[in-house]
Specification:
The longest helix is centred in the middle third of the chain and has 41 residues. The protein folds into 2 domains: about 180 residues, no CATH class; about 100 residues, name from scop. Helix content is about 70%, strand content about 5%. Helix 3 packs antiparallel against helix 4 and helix 6 packs antiparallel against helix 8. The protein contains 13 helices and 6 strands. The protein is α+β, with helices and mostly antiparallel strands. Belongs to the type III secretion exporter family. Keywords: Bacterial flagellum biogenesis, Bacterial flagellum protein export, Cell membrane, Cell projection, Cilium, Flagellum, Membrane, Protein transport, Transmembrane, Transmembrane helix, Transport.
Length: about 375
């Protein structure tokens, strides 16, 4: 009795990797292995990289707005039309300045998500789920292992960013002591350069943390979707009983059988046709066969395909409607022709051999 219970518990333990079917099901529900930290780290890194590349043009654009404001805009008459024109002009100038950075951030955000999960758009995720408003479920999530991991991750991020900022600033401590002796432009240049260094260093450090988080999310996801041996068996039985799956499997088997049959047509000595509805390919080797053998047959589309392949490989095609129908109905692929059809088939083979200028022996 105890052994039986132990076996039941063992069979219910989720120790097996998820099957492709299970993975498709959980993906439809929006359950995927994804790290938000990857997107955040890459976005931050490329944002500072853009500032490093386009920082000069960014500053020049801001200065142009400043100059135009004090040289032109403040001299305009205050009216509704001038205010509207001023707003549109300032908005256009601001868009020109920040558009390249926003475009890069957008591309990086999309690319990092595609790299992690591929293209996926699930409308079910935007539906209102009132179960998520349950206070008890909220408390369970608050004191769960996942919440603890997120807390540790947040502390690590704060610690890493703090350490990076301290290290970068500490290396520049001597420069801070002489800032009072520099003009405003040099000070601005120093501060901008320091901010870029801090941003790039912090982004690189967060990227390392993000990679670790992605590995953890992948491991956690794989563990979550594990299946028991019984679940795999049930899934297999379900697939076996699914009419759609059975239909697809039969279609694949039929296609494979037809392809194999078509590949045998070039070996035939003759193809007997109806001429359009039936085609039967016959092969005969007097040294190895006791009687001619049907190596391919088909009706309608398959018959046309057999004739097409026969023509390509210069296999003789003979039209004989009664014989083609009789062979199609009486002989399966791989079988020899029945005794009552020997004479009819023999005459056709003799004719073919005579036309080809070769002799394989006559059937009696």
């Amino acid at each position: 009795m105890l052994l039986h219970l132990d076996l039941q518990l063992f069979s219910g333990e989720k120790t097996e990797k998820a099957t492709p079917t299970k993975r498709r099901e959980v993906r439809k529900k929006g359950q995927i292995a994804k790290s938000i930290e990857i997107s955040s780290a890459f976005t931050l890194l490329f944002s500072f990289a853009c500032l490093m590349v386009w920082g000069k043009s960014f500053i020049e654009g801001c200065l142009d707005i400043y100059r135009h404001t004090y040289r032109e805009y403040l001299l305009w008459d205050l009216s509704i039309s001038s205010t509207k024109l001023l707003f549109n002009q300032l908005l256009l100038d601001a868009v020109k300045i920040i558009a390249p950075i926003l475009l890069v951030v957008l591309i990086v955000g999309i690319a990092t998500n595609l790299m992690q999960v591929g293209f996926m758009f699930n409308f079910s995720l935007i539906k209102v789920d009132f179960k998520k408003l349950d206070p008890l479920q909220g408390l369970k999530r608050l004191f769960s292992l996942r919440s603890l991991v997120e807390l540790i991750k947040s502390i690590l991020k704060i610690t890493i960013v703090g350490v990076v900022v301290f290290v970068v600033i500490w290396q520049k401590k001597n420069d801070f002591l002489v800032l009072g002796e520099k003009n405003i432009w040099d000070v601005s240049s120093f501060i901008a350069s320091l901010i870029l260094q801090i941003g790039l260093a912090a982004s690189a450090a967060l990227l390392v943390l993000a990679v670790g988080d992605f590995i953890y999310q992948k491991y956690s996801f794989e563990k979550k979707i594990r299946m028991s041996k019984q679940e795999i068996k049930d899934e297999f039985k379900k697939m076996e009983g699914d009419p759609v799956i059975k239909g697809k499997r039969r279609a694949i088997q039929r296609q494979m059988a037809m392809n194999q049959m078509i590949r045998e047509v070039p070996k035939a000595d003759v193809v007997i046709t109806n001429p359009t509805h039936f085609a039967v390919a016959i092969r005969y080797d007097i040294k190895t066969m006791d009687a001619p053998q049907v190596i391919a047959k088909g009706r309608d589309y398959i018959a046309l395909k057999i004739k097409e392949v026969a023509k390509e490989h210069k296999v003789t095609i003979v039209e004989n409607r009664p014989l083609a129908r009789a062979l199609f109905a009486a002989v399966e692929i791989g079988e020899t022709i029945p005794e009552e059809l020997f004479n009819a088939v023999g005459e056709i083979l003799a004719y073919v051999y005579y036309q080809d200028g070769r002799y394989k022996g006559m059937m009696t």
